[in-house]
């Protein structure tokens, strides 16, 4: 750690003024982009804009499903609610834009969505109005016909009995995954996946609509549509098809793509598209998340390295926490400004884990797995210094920079000053919200559809709610259970002595630690599967030994970062004496977990602490049944700073549990609330006055504080 700090002080945190890109570099590899006509941008128009070119005269087969699961053809005039799926033909370059959630299977030909070429397999696509609406585009080129599952094959047989002349045949299946009921927990987000049907889209909806999926002929002011600008397509083609470089031993170098740019330039969207392109080419790709506030796969407050092997077809909150990170580091904040040294150390650790994996794969003769690095949007001052630190740690082979021609086209990083790093620089036109939005985000067009322009804290709230209410089927399919409040969920009961309580920089007296942790959102930390070089690799038996008589002093020290202050349980027991009986004292560490010995698993809500029996009750999101349970590796929890110090906090919607969330979040009337509650009954009837850890009166008790209010006008626009 000392060597790393010295290295950063001499190389990474060089004053910004000393590494400004000179004007002589303009047009070079690391200079400004070559002047060119701005590429078409996905944008909203004041007048309704045609976005779906699919013709309703194309053949369509509506399919129903009996109670026994048998598929049959429905009459064309049958209600949409009776449809299980719709099979329809498309011509080359036809487009289809929709809002909602559905499963898509291309029975013939190829359809491109999120730069993923879908063919032969069922893909679940999420298209909320809070993000650019998904566009399906039929392709002229076809892949090798993939083997269909039994249901898809039966749908194709029903289609082929009367139609077989179309270039592309697509099946759209209705799904009920639970995420569409997000409004039952957070009414402000009730219309993300549902909305009113415009007059010019009624015929289209009647033709190919299914429950939960609303096709749209046109979009109005403020509605975004997911498109791939010309320069984006060129950068994606170049990055995903370029031959791999060779090292000194003529071995292929694993490609590392770093995507950088200011906030709102579309870095995450481009990274998602690039991941889909690389998955199609390599089969697997690592995704390094370095944006604490806008994470892709991990929950907010953590930096993660995730191995992705399936296409990503939705915004972040649709897959938050669905894949266990290969390695992750928890900071518990949404910005690194208060602890840039640890942030840089976390990025360096993730880069080391990736390089260790590449070396082990090469030793086994397996092909190298590429990595995509999504950077934060903080590109000035300290944020730029951290970007330099990131580039020095990950050593990208490709550096993709999103820029806004209207403000600046200067290179963010002068790679001549970054030792051992000479990437190919690719430029893409950024998609700022000003250019994407054609009108006020709170306006409603002719269709009456309200556009929801969500801020960064809304995105974090959606990710946390998605994580907390996640569920899994017995077959390992990701779902959400919005009917069951958190207050009604069975917590995990963990002995206090089996956990290390990492308090970070919080100066909490030891006697108040349990009070400070109770009712908060914490990070669950477990033993790392990929320990660093020279670090101790914990076996299963050793981990089990931690729970024999609680986490020992030596184990707590080994699992914590160097220099952390510790309240050793052995000292407490010695002071209490032998006649005091069992002393239920946790291992309290004023510091953070070790980056090499531990990894972040997930967030958890401390439901309660039973001091009498010595147990902590944690509400932990369920893990996929297809994965090996990581719960046996859990060794402690991390208490991050509060919201006033940019910490990750429990969403208010999760606290207002039990059926009265709509009233608390501003429903229009009691009758309206009661009607909705009858349609969507909750499993308990806990009122807002009985909601845990929440009061609408005065601050009472140790640690009580008022919830932080945000953007009144924006919040009203979302309700």
Describe this protein's structure:
The chain has 719 residues and is α+β, with helices and mostly antiparallel strands. Helices cover 23% and strands 21% of the residues. Strands 2, 3, 4, 5, 6, 7, 8, 9, 10 and 11 form a 10-stranded antiparallel sheet that branches. The chain has an 8-stranded mixed sheet with strand order 22-28-27-24-29-23-26-25. The chain has a 7-stranded mixed sheet with strand order 16-15-14-17-13-18-19, with helices on both faces. The protein is globular and about 85 Å long. It starts with a helix and ends with a helix. Mean pLDDT is 78; it is low at 1-30, 35-45, 433-451, 660-689 and 711-719.
SSE topology:
Blueprint: H1 2-12, E1 49-50, E2 60-65, E3 71-73, E4 85-90, E5 95-108, E6 110-113, E7 116-118, E8 123-127, E9 135-139, H2 150-160, E10 168-174, H3 202-208, E11 213-216, E12 218-219, H4 230-241, E13 256-261, H5 267-282, E14 285-289, E15 302-308, E16 327-330, H6 340-363, E17 371-374, H7 382-394, E18 398-403, E19 424-429, H8 433-436, H9 456-468, E20 470-472, E21 478-480, E22 492-495, E23 500-502, H10 513-517, E24 521-527, H11 540-546, H12 553-558, E25 565-567, H13 569-576, E26 587-590, E27 598-610, E28 615-619, E29 634-638, H14 652-655, H15 661-664, H16 670-679, H17 712-718
Parallel strand pairs: 13-17, 13-18, 14-17, 18-19, 23-26, 23-29
Antiparallel strand pairs: 1-12, 2-3, 2-4, 4-10, 5-8, 5-9, 5-10, 5-11, 6-7, 6-9, 14-15, 15-16, 20-21, 22-28, 24-27, 24-29, 25-26, 27-28
């Amino acid at each position: 750690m000392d060597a790393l700090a010295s290295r950063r002080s001499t190389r990474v945190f060089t004053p910004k003024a000393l590494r400004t890109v000179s004007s002589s570099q303009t047009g070079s590899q690391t200079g400004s982009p070559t002047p060119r006509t701005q590429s078409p941008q996905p944008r909203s128009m004041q007048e309704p804009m045609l976005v779906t070119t699919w013709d309703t005269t194309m053949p369509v087969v509506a399919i129903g499903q009996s109670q026994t699961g048998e598929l049959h053809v429905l009459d064309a005039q049958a209600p949409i609610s009776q449809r299980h799926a719709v099979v329809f033909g498309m011509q080359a370059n036809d487009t289809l834009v929709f809002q909602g959630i559905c499963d898509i299977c291309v029975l013939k030909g190829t359809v491109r969505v999120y730069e993923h070429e879908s063919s032969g397999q069922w893909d679940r696509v999420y298209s909320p109005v809070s993000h650019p609406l998904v566009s399906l585009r039929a392709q002229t080129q076809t892949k090798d016909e993939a083997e269909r599952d039994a249901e898809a094959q039966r749908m194709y047989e029903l289609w082929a009995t009367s139609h077989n002349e179309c270039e592309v045949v697509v099946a759209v299946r209705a799904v009920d995954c639970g995420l569409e009921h997000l409004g039952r927990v957070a009414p402000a987000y009730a219309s993300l996946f549902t909305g009113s049907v415009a007059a010019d889209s009624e015929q289209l909806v009647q033709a190919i609509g299914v429950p939960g999926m609303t096709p749209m002929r046109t979009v109005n002011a403020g509605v975004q549509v997911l498109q791939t600008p010309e320069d984006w397509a060129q950068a994606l083609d170049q990055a995903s098809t370029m031959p791999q470089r060779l090292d000194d031993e003529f071995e292929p170098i694993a490609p590392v793509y770093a995507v950088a740019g200011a906030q709102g330039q579309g870095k995450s969207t481009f990274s998602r598209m690039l991941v889909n392109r690389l998955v199609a080419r390599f089969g697997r790709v690592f995704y390094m998340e370095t944006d604490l506030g806008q994470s892709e796969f991990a929950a907010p407050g953590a930096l993660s390295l995730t191995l992705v092997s399936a296409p990503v077809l939705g915004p972040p909150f649709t897959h938050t926490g669905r894949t266990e990170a290969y390695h992750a580091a928890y900071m518990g904040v949404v910005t690194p400004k208060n602890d840039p040294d640890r942030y840089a150390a976390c990025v360096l650790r993730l880069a080391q884990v990736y390089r260790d994996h590449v070396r082990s794969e090469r030793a086994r003769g397996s092909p190298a797995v590429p990595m995509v690095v999504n950077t934060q949007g903080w590109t000035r001052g300290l944020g730029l210094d951290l970007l330099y630190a990131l580039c020095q740690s990950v050593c990208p082979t490709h550096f993709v920079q999103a820029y806004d021609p209207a403000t600046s086209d200067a290179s963010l990083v002068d790679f001549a000053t970054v030792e051992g790093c000479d990437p190919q620089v690719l430029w893409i036109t950024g998609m700022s919200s000003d250019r994407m939005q054609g009108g006020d985000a709170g306006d409603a067009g002719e269709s009456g559809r309200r556009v929801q322009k969500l801020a960064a804290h809304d995105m974090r709230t959606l990710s946390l709610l998605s994580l907390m209410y996640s569920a899994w089927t017995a077959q390992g399919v990701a779902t959400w259970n919005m009917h069951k409040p958190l207050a009604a969920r069975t917590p995990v009961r963990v002995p206090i002595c089996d956990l290390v309580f990492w308090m970070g920089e919080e100066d909490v007296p030891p006697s108040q630690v349990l009070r400070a942790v109770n009712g908060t959102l914490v990070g669950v930390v477990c033993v790392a599967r990929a320990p660093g070089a020279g670090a101790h690799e914990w076996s299963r038996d050793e981990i089990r030994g931690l729970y024999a008589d609680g986490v020992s002093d030596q184990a707590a020290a080994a699992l914590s970062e160097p220099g952390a202050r510790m309240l050793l349980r052995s000292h407490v027991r010695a002071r209490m004496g032998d006649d005091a009986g069992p002393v239920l004292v946790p291992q309290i560490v004023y510091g953070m977990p070790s980056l090499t010995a531990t990894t972040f698993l997930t967030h958890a809500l401390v439901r309660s602490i039973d001091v009498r029996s010595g147990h902590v009750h944690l509400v932990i999101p369920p893990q996929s049944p297809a994965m090996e349970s990581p719960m046996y590796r859990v060794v402690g929890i991390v208490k991050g700073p509060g919201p006033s110090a940019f910490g990750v906090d429990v969403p208010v919607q999760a606290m207002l549990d039990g059926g009265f969330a709509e009233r608390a979040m501003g429903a229009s009337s009691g009758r309206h609330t009661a009607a909705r509650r009858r349609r969507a009954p909750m499993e308990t009837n806990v009122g807002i006055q009985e909601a845990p850890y929440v009061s609408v009166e005065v601050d009472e008790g140790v640690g009580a504080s008022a919830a932080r209010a945000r953007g009144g006008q924006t919040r009203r626009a979302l309700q």
